[in-house]
Amino acid sequence: MGPKLFERTPGRVPEVRTRRFGALIALTALTLLLVACTGAPSQTTSAANSVASVGAGAVAAAPSAPAASSAAASAAPSSAAPSAGGGSGDAGSPNAKVNVAAGVQAENRQVIRTASVTLEVRVKSTGNSAAQVEADQTSVNKAVSDAALEVRSLANGPGFVSASSGGGATVSITLRVPVTGYESVMNALARDGIVTSVTENTQDVTAQMIDINSRVKSAADVIASLRTLLGKATKIGDILSVESQLNSREADLESMKSQLAGLSDQTSLSTITVVIKGVITDVKPVVPPKKPAPPAARSGFLGGLANGWDAARALGHAVLTVIGTVIPFLPLVLVLLIAGLIWRRRIRRGHQTPILGTGDPRSTE
Asked: Is the pTM of this model over 0.90?
């Protein structure tokens, strides 16, 4: 019995091969199906999910709309990709978006340009006195104000002044000017003062705007399909489910439109921030007054006599100073002195009163 387990049956070999071949075909078909599902746009998948949540009656009537939108969404990237990068044009590939942006001509690219410019307005100093310094500061403020008016005039026409701050010797102005007039405005700023620093930045948002435009179109197609399903739904649960999906899609669409509008505004108008500073030049240093030279030392007889005379004068000056200080207090001192004398006399009179004895005849009275 043991050796017969390993014997091959001639009739079973073709059957085993047929089963293996059928399994291989099924595996290949499953793989192709998975690849096709993963390569479909995200909008089609979400639309299919929303369709699946609707009742059986609505699902039967709706497959044509999502299929058309998915076909349009997949056809647009695939047709743009070959012209952009010359590649395979697979809409599901991660390089499809980059290839579309790379195919845009240089004059049609969407670029955000910003710049920061610092201008110095210089006024020559007229002097170091307080009045001259005040006059110089007034002149600087006026020169900065005139330069600010010139800078503001550069935004006339399609452009405008979006912000302004500061005052006196420092003013900051933000201009929004058309992209076509960006270079002319930058060149004109040098005429209003001395440019001390310039910072320019550019950001290419072509790919981002193309992506948002594509997403807006796909979202609009999905919303149209959901509205069609909403009109055909009859059950309350189906209506609520479709309305929830529709509200979410409409909110996403409005958000994408806002982003697109913001990018369009930034690419159509460049932003230039100008800081104007007033500076006083040729300021003369303040010379301190010279100190008087100390007197020369005196010596000898005449020098000693002069020193003694100076000492006598200093002493007399000190004595006169003391007398002059005391004189205002003399009336008060005199009054106190008179009061003290009167009080002293009264005390003496009280001590001089005679003491009468027992034999004095006045004592009996």
From this structure: no
